[in-house]
């Protein structure tokens, strides 16, 4: 017996739907490729994409920071020098550059601010020097809220460094963000900065600036550190395993918090540090000196209104403890045969 007519028609209809979706995806990729540019930075490259008729190109700030010369290689092979910067968003790792001549490349329309969900498929479109832009099919591994300043997407796989700045498309072919290659807690990550942070950079344009504006993120005001100098006696009564456990937890918090802070997630960094301090105060009754130092750090935070100042106050507290632990280790060498195995640290953004 043959397949029932209803089943056959349903199968044909589903096949037509698949073909239509594929055709829409291919058209979206072609359209996006026409707006994607390769940024030649003299020794390395990055990707960017045009987002306005005036020739504004958005890319990852870290990829172009401190560049002395930038050349945009357009899809047709034309090379156009980039000599002006329209906007810089250090917190979210974004830079908007200006092509020297407008209307050379069609502007890409950004999608809605709605974020893709975990498990959704995305296309990352990376520019190359010797071939058309290459789409990478990835999935959203997680939606990460790192604080009030930044919500981002973690991808299912890592990205090469020169993919930073690539446009990211969802299954409908809409641009949902900008891809960036990152490293946190010793692990390479593929991330997406959502379009919700890109659009405002064009709504309030300021005066165009020279490429030296890309150096500004590195010219931070000098911060006066207040790292406590503890005597080794602070750890009196702490058993060696307890000291090593404290050091491991503090080190893990710094390894996660510092990259988050550098990407602009200042509030998230502070909360992580505060949670770590509270955890050690609750759990380490066998190290009263450590508890006392952490309470002092949290007390110092109570008088600070700015999240950045609070994050640095706890980082100073942690560094003071790591310093005294280092000096304690010199006077308490571990027995040669007592190499205890510790569980591996948790990975970032899990």
UniProtKB/TrEMBL annotation:
Residues 1-27, 331-350 are annotated as: Disordered. Residues 18-27 have a biased composition (Basic and acidic residues). InterPro entries: Peptidase_S1_PA (IPR009003), Peptidase_S1C (IPR001940). PANTHER family: PROTEASE DO-LIKE 5, CHLOROPLASTIC (PTHR43019:SF23), SERINE ENDOPROTEASE DEGS (PTHR43019). This is Serine protease. It comes from Corallococcus caeni.
């Amino acid at each position: 017996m043959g397949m029932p007519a209803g089943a056959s028609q349903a199968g044909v209809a589903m096949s037509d739907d698949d073909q239509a979706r594929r055709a829409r995806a291919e058209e979206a990729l072609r359209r996006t490729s026409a707006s994607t540019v390769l940024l030649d930075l003299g020794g390395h490259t990055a990707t960017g994409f045009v987002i306005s008729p005036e020739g504004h190109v958005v890319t990852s700030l870290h990829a172009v920071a401190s560049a002395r010369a930038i050349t945009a290689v357009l899809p047709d092979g034309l090379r156009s020098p980039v000599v002006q910067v329209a906007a810089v968003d250090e917190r979210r790792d974004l830079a908007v550059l200006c092509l020297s001549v407008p209307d050379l490349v069609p502007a890409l329309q950004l999608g809605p601010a709605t974020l893709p969900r975990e498990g959704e498929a995305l296309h990352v479109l990376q520019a190359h020097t010797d071939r058309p832009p290459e789409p990478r099919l990835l999935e959203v591994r997680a939606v990460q809220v790192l604080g009030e300043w930044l919500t981002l997407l973690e991808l299912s796989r890592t990205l090469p460094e020169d993919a930073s700045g690539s446009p990211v498309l969802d299954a409908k072919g809409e641009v949902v963000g900008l891809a960036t290659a990152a490293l946190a807690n010793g692990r390479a990550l593929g991330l997406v900065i959502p379009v919700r942070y890109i659009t405002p950079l064009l709504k309030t344009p300021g005066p165009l600036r020279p490429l030296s504006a890309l150096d500004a993120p590195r010219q931070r005001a000098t911060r006066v550190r207040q790292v406590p100098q503890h005597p080794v006696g602070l750890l009196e009564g702490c058993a060696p395993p307890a000291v090593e456990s404290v050091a491991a937890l503090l080190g893990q918090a710094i390894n996660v918090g510092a990259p988050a802070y550098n990407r602009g997630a200042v509030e998230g960094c502070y909360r992580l540090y505060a949670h770590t301090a509270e955890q050690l105060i609750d759990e380490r009754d066998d190290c009263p000196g450590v508890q006392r130092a952490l309470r002092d750090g949290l007390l110092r935070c109570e008088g600070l209104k700015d999240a950045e100042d609070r994050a640095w106050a706890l980082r100073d507290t942690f560094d003071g403890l790591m310093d005294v632990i280092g000096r304690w280790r010199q006077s308490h060498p571990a027995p040669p045969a007592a190499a205890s195995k510790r569980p591996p640290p948790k990975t970032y953004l899990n």
